[in-house]
Amino acid sequence: MLIHIPNVLDAAQVAQCRAALDSAEWVDGRNTAGYLSQRVKDNAQVPDVHPVARQLGDMILGILEKHATFTSAALPLKVVPPLFNRYAGNQTYGRHVDGAIRPVTGTPHRVRTDLSATLFLSAPEEYDGGELVVEDTFGPRSIKLPAGDLVLYPGTSVHRVEPVTRGARLASFFWIQSMVREDSQRTMLFELDNSIQHLGRDVPQHPAVVQLAGLYHNLLRRWADA
After folding, report:
1. Mean pLDDT across the chain, nearest whole number?
2. DSSP letters spanning 174-225
3. Of 122, 169, 205, 216, which one has the fewest beta carbons inside 10 Å?
4. Statement: residue 84 has pLDDT above 90
């Protein structure tokens, strides 16, 4: 399941991120890539221990904790602190799959990468190229979203970032360990939750609202690890 979540950050929050990243230290993104990904990765990143990365990452996590659509879609159990990357001057990231387990720097914790997330910080008109291309069951999906929008996609997906031929593409990226490991199960729960919310809004007294809510939570009990 690939989910576009609009307006995770508003214009002021995007501007805050951009201003902070302008003053941050940038290093070769290959420093954080596995031995296979190093061959196809060409970008810049802010080190995950950098104060700017920590500050902005905490802000993004605080927003996501209160975001109903993100919570419904991801059912997050653990989230890797957000990282930040930049592509410019024909930089690209070739076809790859994210590692299954991601350590959390400075802690003994590890996160299973059930979901990958990209939060766009540059407007599409600021750069050419730079599309995130995710290969799913329906074929390659090309994604280039407005600044402040986020895309969630399965961590099992083969994906790439197309070369940026003009301007610069800034984004935050991170991984989520879901309470529900299987993408197909998360998809069903997300669609069921959306249906319950629409029904509850349009005909709140309908007895099916309670019945469907019971079904949702019983499925969550069956499938979730918490």
Report:
1. 95
2. EEEEESS--HHHHHHHHHHHHHHHHHHHH-TT-HHHHHHHHHHHHHHHHH--
3. 205
4. yes
